[in-house]
Amino acid sequence: MERAKVIIHMYMSIDGKIDGDWDGLPGDKISGDYYDDQLFKLGSANANGSNTIVMYAAKGKPDLSKYDGQRIEYRDWVPSEIKSATWDVSYDRRGRAGWEKNYFPYAGRKNRAIEVIAKQASQNYLAFLQSMEIPYLVCGEREINFAESLVKLKKYFDIKTMVLGGSALINGAFLKAGLVDQISLVIAPYISGDSKKKGTFDTLEKFVNQRFHVTQTKKLGDGGIHLIYDRD
């Protein structure tokens, strides 16, 4: 395969909600720890949309004005000396992530950051990323070309499998683009009951006619379950 394989890997309640008051309760510790442990067994890169990245990994507010006047071409910036066994990929078309470190500690690893942006991101933001030694891929004009990003992730970083963990909108965007190869769902032993919370996929009310079939069911020690689906 020319591109990186994509696995959607999500932690959810029995009624399909991906966050809420149930997450982190003592009764789902086994399932929660199992979800984290599985991520880098599935692939070498953890990917998220900008909302999730800003919420958890890159909360800073960098002063981009210090880069005023710099003229940086909109092309990939991938220094050969930047290496890592595991990666944290940020799909961040406008350049919102306020990285304070060039890695994100998760699942016991320091996962080096990679930014995937569109040309909506400012030149100041590109200068900021270079100052942080965070490689970036320019994939698209106003919207990100997801297929192009997967080819580049495999070419430049040898990422054979990318594990996408949300948000629901970016999961839905990859689904609509026909790029989801496998779905991994760890289901906690709780029901959310909150209709305002998102499910695994938000396709903006568009039905996506793709069929998946279950290839693994594994019961977990706290009553949770791990399901894996492959695309037909």
From TrEMBL:
UniProt key word NADP: yes
Swiss-Prot/TrEMBL keywords: NADP, Oxidoreductase
The keyword Signal is assigned to this record: no
Domain Bacterial bifunctional deaminase-reductase C-terminal: 124-221
Pathway(s) served: Cofactor biosynthesis; riboflavin biosynthesis
Superkingdom, natural source: Bacteria
Protein's recorded name: Dihydrofolate reductase family protein
Entries under InterPro entries matching the protein: DHFR-like_dom_sf, RibDG_C, Riboflavin_Biosynth_HTPR
Signal peptide: none
